[in-house]
Fold:
Amino acid sequence: GAVVSQHPSWVICKSGTSVKIECRSLDFQATTMFWYRQFPKQSLMLMATSNEGSKATYEQGVEKDKFLINHASLTLSTLTVTSAHPEDSSFYICSASRDRRSSYNEQFFGPGTRLTVL
Amino acid sequence: GQQLNQSPQSMFIQEGEDVSMNCTSSSIFNTWLWYKQDPGEGPVLLIALYKAGELTSNGRLTAQFGITRKDSFLNISASIPSDVGIYFCAGPSFTGNQFYFGTGTSLTVIP
Structure:
């Protein structure tokens, strides 16, 4: 159980276009979803946290107008990179957590989406 | 955010050798997590540690929660080629609502 999927797994787009990435929890309801960005050979950097039906909370330095997050249901969150530029090329990973069962909210990670902006 | 530093940054070892890596923090954590990330994939949880001094195993992997609560260690015994990947430590924030990830240790196993 606790499977998270992402779509697409990779995408190539032209500079200036927008790209939408989907994150789904397949077998559980995710009260919270997280979006991370990972550059080559670097760690995961949290971009934003979203709860179903409410606005996402963005980390410092992340432009909310550029990275639009919609957590429309308990099983789906989307990240839209608007007006993408080559510096937005990265590996985007989502995670989802269900109701708290321990001292922390366990996160289940998706397989990631590789975005390349030409 | 919290800084979690891992060492070594990378390792190149022969198949069959044992591996040790560690993670240190400037602040204490109540939980330590160890993840493995295969190339082009998301992280997968290997081991979770919940109290200082705890030693937990998962197959050939053994992890320890440091007594000071500011560090943790991961050991892999008798490495095999499929151990290749990046290993991350992570600690939940005080509220438990978000994770801080370490800088990662890249492991290459030479057959």
Q: What stands out?
A: The longest strand of chain B covers residues 85-92. Residues 11 and 28 of chain B are 27 Å apart (CA to CA). Chain B touches chain A through 21 residues (CB under 8 Å). Chain B has a mean pLDDT of 94.
